[in-house]
């Protein structure tokens, strides 16, 4: 593995280049042999090359957004799904582009054929390349150095990626640096769990000296420092952390995007509201919508709107609790709505009212947030911005992601906020809607 490690990025680049070349080449054939011959004003040589170039640029953009280039990072199924999704959106944008040039709607069948052929190419090319990649870069044998907190969540997650990591041994940092240093030298890399900063620094510095790869679980203070502004006013560098949430101009533009996006979404989703409403009503005759108190910016409470996915009075006698795997309170139609997150659609009206934003931390219930804050006092840091319909933690986490990890993800969003980041998270949302692992329920334990 070490023989090829220095060439890993070049190998990945070669995979990506060949994939883009094949997919763009097939579209080029369809454009030249079909669409360019029937559109209102056909292109000649340079025009044809420009149309093919635009397709390639769009494909690269969507591949980058959905993770289609993350060979060796995403699981095979996720990687293929990301690539096919990128081709779908590229073809969708291209269809409207061709329609605009033709000045009326045109048959999409050649692009449908392009989609089918592209999917076959993606599956075959990615599976072959994944096999080659695993031969060149087998899973790393890892040492997990655990901290004071149980790291079973981390151990469980890493074990789910046996294609990438194999945790061969676990050692506590309490055993001392002499023992730890001796064990570190036996492995391809280490994972540093949640432990005091002093001990963590000693371990990370030792790995740096020895040229051994290290993975560290970030603390909340690490996230705050990592997103601070570097000041070089004098010969002692300073890190400035303003800690005020979003700036005034950022809030203004974010609200403008919310108003425009929510207004368009209401028009587009009217058929979904009708179909879902009828389906819920036919299930048990109960109400279609469900209101619940949630928290938004600065701890303000508001009534959130959702499609009802559980039986009526689902929490009568049990109180507030998250949905668990195989929860018998969930209606049959509710399972489908939860799986693709369409139960959240009515929150569009919360966005128009100003209670929520399109992108932001997931709105928590006051009683659940109070319970979480007993264990994690910093959980309220998420309330520096408005709650969101989608967000960083919703895209990169799961429904059953631990509260501590959700906090870290939300803080990463708040500290790195930009309109471009919002746009990326909005574009990423369709991908996670159809990923079952993103909506896994909380385990009973």
> Given the structure, what is the number of helices?
17
Measured as a percent range, the helix fraction is: 40-55%
- Mean pLDDT rating: 88
**C-alpha-based Rg, rounded:** 25 Å
Derived from helix and strand composition plus strand pairing, the structural class reads alpha/beta
Overall strand count:
10
Ends apart, CA distance between termini: 39 Å
In terms of DSSP E residues, the strand content is 5-15%
Strand/helix succession = HHHHHEHEHEHEHEEHHEEHHEHEHHH
What global shape is seen? globular
Strand order of the largest sheet: 2-1-3-4
Spans where pLDDT lies below 50 across 5 or more residues: 441-445
Largest sheet: 4 strands, parallel
Describe the 3D structure.
- The longest helix has 31 residues, at 8-38.
- This protein is an alpha/beta fold and 445 residues long.
- The model is unreliable at 441-445 (pLDDT under 50).
- The two termini are 39 Å apart.
- It contains 17 helices and 10 strands.
- Helix 2 runs antiparallel to helix 5 (109-136), helix 3 (45-66) packs antiparallel against helix 4 and helix 4 packs antiparallel against helix 5.
- Strand 9, helix 14 and strand 10 form a beta-alpha-beta unit.
- The protein has a 4-stranded parallel sheet with strand order 2-1-3-4, with helices on both faces.
- It has helices spanning 2-5, 8-38, 45-66, 76-102, 109-136, 152-159, 177-184, 197-210, 220-226, 248-268, 270-284, 332-339, 347-353, 366-375, 392-396, 403-415, 419-433, and strands spanning 140-146, 165-172, 189-192, 213-216, 229-231, 238-240, 289-295, 301-307, 356-359, 387-390.
- It is globular, with a radius of gyration of 25 Å.
